[in-house]
């Protein structure tokens, strides 16, 4: 669904897409570390590549895995490891979670479209209808 949204709305300038973390550590203990690692990859312009690697390997998430994926993605590993080991983005990730909770998000994926909550994985048609309604004003 996201590629369609990007193609139809984001890439055309009609919609701005902003990704926020919502780590549910009680469900997946590696949720926050994975979010931190992806933010460290973002520093080097590889957020989505790292994010996709995380989602493709959800059963093997660990500190060692994140550091290996940094190597695999040709990141500056010294910078990545320093960022990750110091939990540089912990307050940002916690802030994302708090703001998402305050907006009514209870699980992932969760989306806010101008404050309208869309919960769960939905087909493109659901987003298309909501976006078009917003654009029509």
Strand order of the largest sheet: 1-2
Which word captures the global form? globular
Distance from first to last alpha carbon: 23 Å
As residue ranges, the low-confidence spans are none
User: Helical region count?
Assistant: 7
Query: What is the number of domains?
Result: 2
From the alpha-carbon coordinates, what is the Rg to the nearest angstrom? 16 Å
Q: What share of residues are in beta strands?
A: 5-15%
Based on the structure, what is the oligomeric state of the protein chains? single chain
Considering the chains and any ligands shown, give keywords for the structure.
single chain, 137 residues, mainly alpha, 2 domains, two-stranded antiparallel ribbon, 2 strands
Write the layout of secondary structure elements.
Elements: H1 2-10, H2 31-42, H3 47-56, H4 63-72, H5 77-85, H6 90-102, E1 110-113, E2 116-119, H7 124-136
Antiparallel strand pairs: 1-2
Helix pairs in contact: 2-3, 2-4, 2-5
Descriptive overview:
The chain is mainly alpha-helical and 137 residues long. The chain has two domains: 1-22 and 106-137, no CATH class; 28-104. 55% of the residues lie in helices and 6% in strands. It has seven helices and two strands. It has helices at residues 2-10, 31-42, 47-56, 63-72, 77-85, 90-102, 124-136; strands at residues 110-113, 116-119. A two-stranded antiparallel sheet has the order 1-2. A hairpin with a 2-residue loop joins strand 1 (110-113) and strand 2. Helix 2 runs parallel beside helix 4 and helix 2 crosses helix 5 (77-85).
């Amino acid at each position: 669904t996201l590629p369609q949204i990007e193609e139809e709305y984001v890439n055309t300038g009609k919609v701005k897409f902003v990704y926020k973390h919502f780590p549910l550590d009680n469900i997946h203990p590696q949720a926050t570390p994975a979010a931190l690692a992806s933010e460290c990859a973002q520093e080097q312009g590889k957020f989505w590549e790292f994010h996709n690697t995380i989602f493709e390997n959800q059963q093997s998430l660990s500190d060692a895995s994140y550091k290996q994926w940094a190597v695999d993605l040709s990141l500056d590993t010294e910078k990545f490891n320093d960022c990750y080991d110091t939990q540089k983005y912990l307050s940002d990730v916690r802030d994302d979670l708090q703001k998402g909770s305050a907006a009514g998000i209870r699980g992932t994926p969760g989306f806010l479209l101008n404050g309208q909550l869309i919960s769960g994985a939905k087909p493109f048609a659901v987003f298309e209808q909501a976006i078009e309604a917003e654009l029509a004003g």
